[in-house]
Amino acid sequence: MTYPKKNLNSNETIALDMHPHWWYFAQPAAALVGSIVIGIVVLSKTEAGKTTGKAARLVTVALLILTALWLIGRFLKWLTTNFVITSQRIIFRQGVVAKSGIEIPLERVNNVNFNQGVFERILGAGDLLIESGGEDGQQRFTDIRHPDKVQNLVHAQVETLVQQRAGYRGPAVVAGTDVADQLERLEGLLQRGTITDEEFAAQKAKLLG
Question: DSSP states of the chain as a string?
Fold first, then answer.
């Protein structure tokens, strides 16, 4: 299920829309496999006619049903979880019935880090930590596919937004505040290595000009 385009702002485009990595299913899938193995063992070791055998089989069936429901529930949650990067925002939405979401304007993104263990690196999964100037400060997103590439994409989108804003010439009163914000954003891009010293100087000259 893709992120609804009706929720986008005017002139806003989607650069990335993805569900969590398949590793998101690891726990319920392992539990289901384990319950199937237990069921096979119970069926082979117990006799259907005995009371203890009936009880063991009922418990096994209940375990199979519970783990299967857990996996189905996790799939529905996966299906309705979207991590979206647009030309203006980072959006995270999840929930089958009850919905929850996080939105971070790109102009407020200060830093983006990712974390991958050795096993996660092999699988192509990891966590993404986004630091912003909002009230929440830091947001961690887990089971992100190829978080290093997502990090680069966020930086690229921020840089594009800064360049677009730098080329904008609005009213003098509004521009004063906008210039200060954009200079701060440019310094952040320079510190992260997203832009070079020459690009920083050129963009700064445009803003101050």
Answer: -PPPGGGSPTT--EEEEEPPPGGGGHHHHHHHHHHHHHHHHHHHHS-TTSHHHHHHHHHHHHHHHHHHHHHHHHHHHHHT-EEEEESSEEEEEE-SSS-EEEEEEGGGEEEEEEE--HHHHHHTEEEEEEEESSSS-EEEEEEEESHHHHHHHHHHHHHHHHHHHHT----HHHHHHHHHHHHHHHHHHHHHTSS-HHHHHHHHHHHH-
